[in-house]
TrEMBL record:
<protein>
    <recommendedName>
        <fullName>Hydrolase</fullName>
    </recommendedName>
</protein>
<keyword id="KW-0732">Signal</keyword>
<dbReference type="InterPro" id="IPR050955">
    <property type="entry name" value="Plant_Biomass_Hydrol_Est"/>
</dbReference>
<dbReference type="InterPro" id="IPR029058">
    <property type="entry name" value="AB_hydrolase_fold"/>
</dbReference>
<dbReference type="GO" id="GO:0016787">
    <property type="term" value="F:hydrolase activity"/>
</dbReference>
<keyword id="KW-0378">Hydrolase</keyword>
Length: 354
């Protein structure tokens, strides 16, 4: 009889492959490509179902443990996500279905993350490639990092919740920079956290992914959401070595627009801003003088045309902000994860990989 982990390998490989396809779809997402994306996802879902069936048929009487339960839950979530992705035919309903599917796929990652200290392949999946586990300079080789979700107990996806990742303690004690990642409209920090988790584990920074108080970030009156974010930062700094003098505020879509709104305020605790696929909100812009901003936008953004990013960055520069605008040719309205490293190096050269 095969050992538990050996049996699980027959599922873990296809499962991680399917999640990677979801990540590629998320990166390349465009409404016009929903049918093509759906076909690719459903093919992977079918392969995953076959692997699931083979897993159980091999030895159906072998009792399951927590590792098997986590992997099976992740498999079921990925398959369900693929089916949801292709569940609507209309353009608008198709976009909403795709967004729901991609958020649900994030929960498969959460189900697997607890196995990072037990399965090398899963540990490597949640690090930057090529895998650098056991080679991160200045950091512990053990999986002593932690992931903490706060919010309403009965509803882990309540508004006003927050997710915090703290990396393993550095070999040389010191304060760690903080990256605050803001989700897009109707999203949730618990899902958006996975956009930055590999870099946080590999490079060693504290990652905070708060959830907006309302359905999305409030642009006209940013103070309630801003107070919520800063309360989470304060709580993190009470328990962990957070360097609140080095805080990057980044976000996608509405999260990016809110980050820019915070950059426009007369005073801010954030040392840098990295909006992705957002727009400059209306309002007094003089507060942006001296702000460091790294703005990423897609040349094929179907929600916010790139011209709006160019106009917004020009206005910020005129107001005295230090702005870098990068328009990516093969990007629509999405977060390009391959740019995370460049954003981090720009924010803090100490986070650059050797």
């Amino acid at each position: 009889m095969e050992g538990r982990m050996q049996r699980l390998q027959s599922l873990i490989g296809p499962l991680l492959d399917a999640i990677r396809v979801f990540e590629r779809v998320e990166r390349m997402f465009h409404p016009a490509m929903i049918p093509r994306h759906g076909e690719a996802l459903n093919r992977k879902a079918d392969e995953l179902l076959n692997a699931r069936q083979a897993f159980f048929s091999r030895d159906p009487d072998l009792p399951s443990g927590d590792a098997e339960d986590a992997v099976i839950r992740a498999v079921d979530l990925v398959v369900e996500s693929a089916r949801i992705f292709s569940s609507s035919e209309g353009l608008q309903s198709g976009i909403f279905a795709a967004m729901r599917a991609m958020r649900k796929a994030c929960r498969a990652k959460e189900a697997l993350f607890g196995l990072r200290g037990r399965v090398e392949e899963i540990d490597s999946f949640f690090r930057e490639a090529p895998p650098r586990s056991a080679k991160s300079p200045g950091h512990d080789l053990k999986n002593e990092d932690c992931l903490i979700h706060t919010g309403v107990e009965s509803d882990p996806y309540a508004r006003g919740a927050s997710s915090l990742f703290v990396p393993a303690s550095p070999a040389v004690p010191g304060l760690l920079p903080v990256v605050i990642a803001l989700h897009g409209g109707s999203g949730h920090g618990r899902d958006f956290l996975w956009t930055w988790i590999r870099e946080a584990r590999t490079r060693g920074f504290i990652l905070l992914a708060p959830t907006s108080v309302g359905p999305t970030w409030h642009m006209e009156d940013p103070l309630p959401d801003l107070r919520h974010i800063l309360r989470q930062v304060e709580r993190a700094s009470e328990h962990y070595a957070a360097d609140t003098s080095r805080m990057l505020l980044t976000g996608l879509s509405d999260g990016a627009t809110f980050a820019l709104r915070c950059a426009m305020l007369p005073s801010t605790p954030f040392s840098a801003f990295a909006p992705v696929s957002g727009v400059l909100p209306p309002g007094e812009i003089s507060g942006a003088a001296g702000r460091r901003i790294y703005w990423i936008h897609g040349a094929y953004d179907w929600m916010f045309p790139p011209e709006r990013a160019r106009q917004g960055s020009s206005r910020l520069i005129e107001a005295g902000a230090e702005v870098t605008l990068k328009v990516i040719e093969n990007l629509a309205h999405a977060h390009p994860r391959e740019e995370n490293g460049g954003i981090l190096t720009w924010f803090d050269p100490g986070l650059c990989l050797p």
